[in-house]
Amino acid sequence: MTAPLDSLLADADLCVKCGLCSPHCPTYRQTSDENESPRGRIALIQGWAAGRLPLTAALREPLDDCLLCRNCEAVCPAKVPYGNLMDRFRAETGQRQKSLAARAMSSALRKALRSPALSSLGRRALDAAAQLPGGSAWKHLPPAGNPEDWYGDHPAAGESLSHVGLFLGCTAAVADAATVSAILELLPRLGVSVTVPKNQACCGAMDLHAGDAATAHGLMSRNIEAFAGQPLDAVIGFASGCSATLMEYRHPADTAGAESLSAKVQDIGRFLAERIPAERWALAPLRARILVHNPCSLRNVCKSEGKVEVLLGRIPEAEVITLPGKGRCCGAAGSYMIEHRRMAEAIRTETVEAILAAAPDYLVTSNIGCALHLRAGLQGRADIPVIHPVQLLARLQRV
Ligand code: SF4
Ligand code: SF4
């Protein structure tokens, strides 16, 4: 056995098969199939790494059905590093035994989102994807942004409390320009200087999860370089899926650079809740019921659950509530909602019903993928704005 498979097996062997994770797994909850549970998936990886099970389409399918939500990891008493285990399995096996359609879809999406012509080619690709089964999340995208308008320095108004770098990610220009504008408006007003490095790239999550480690490492190198050498107190992410990936960068050829960037990364909700003193906030009252969705990446990797509630709790007269169903995944999981449409929509149903039951005036979520998926699920059922919490704060901040 090769060394990488040895270490894969060693981590998989940490699983004591207690099954405590199964009720927290969205695919197991849908299927009641052991192969679609964390324990079952780990057993499949063990069988393959030990040479007992060949890599067939039948073995691959339940492993590819995993959303990498990491709900299992969060509750595992044996501390199985499930996310890393699955990424390494996928890196070892690449695209082998995947259908041609699945490979083409995954590759087209990743290439389109990484294109320098994000606002044109990327949107055209997503429009095309929206016409395919499973593409509904990408319909009715908000107006695109132009990253050229965002790059550079955005100094604090008055005394600077802090200097941060802003990580954009590949979906910002295509689908979340309003959040970038809100951040660049709000943070300088709160006394935070923001630098948006031009040579940054996609975080690499989609490549990593698709088993394309070489491309992911290339993107990591660009981001390590883009944010290095600047006196930044933090690197802020506003899509928790990207923040989670940046926080766990592992680069075989640049361990120190990866660790240095990861150590600085924070999700914007945590940064604002912990670093901006109360006296800097001057929020206008808002008589509204605001429902907070905490994405899996925000809970399980960024460990920032509850920070958005603290922040929004500063809004006078607002009623801030957390979406019930602690630990529930919405089914988005980046490109999963397109590549595994049926499962993604089935998983979303429970979350959409919980949102409708809560009847909020706003739904806020810190991950653009979740926002797109939930907007699509609410379409035709309720007219609830689904926005990033910073958009609400920027609208209400009076100074
Ligand atoms: S990461 Fe999520 S979907 Fe995958 S096995 Fe764990 S709980 Fe299930
Ligand atoms: S909770 Fe951990 S040890 Fe128990 S079955 Fe799940 S992954 Fe294995």
Automatic annotation (TrEMBL):
Molecular function (Gene Ontology), one example: 4 iron, 4 sulfur cluster binding
EC number: 1.1.99.14
Pfam families given in the database record: CCG, Fer4_8
Cofactor(s) needed by this chain: [4Fe-4S] cluster
Keywords assigned: 4Fe-4S, Electron transport, Iron, Iron-sulfur, Metal-binding, Repeat, Transport
EC main group: oxidoreductase
Gene3D superfamilies assigned: Alpha-helical ferredoxin
Domain 4Fe-4S ferredoxin-type: residue ranges: 6-35, 56-88
Matching InterPro entries: 4Fe4S_Fe-S-bd (IPR017896), 4Fe4S_Fe_S_CS (IPR017900), Cys_rich_dom (IPR004017), Glc_ox_4Fe-4S (IPR012257), Helical_ferredxn (IPR009051)
Top-level taxon of the source organism: Bacteria
Enzymatic reactions: glycolate + A = glyoxylate + AH2; (R)-lactate + A = pyruvate + AH2
Cofactor: binding details: Binds 2 [4Fe-4S] clusters.
The keyword 4Fe-4S is assigned to this record: yes
PROSITE patterns, alphabetized: 4FE4S_FER_1, 4FE4S_FER_2
Function: Component of a complex that catalyzes the oxidation of glycolate to glyoxylate.
Record protein name field: Glycolate oxidase iron-sulfur subunit
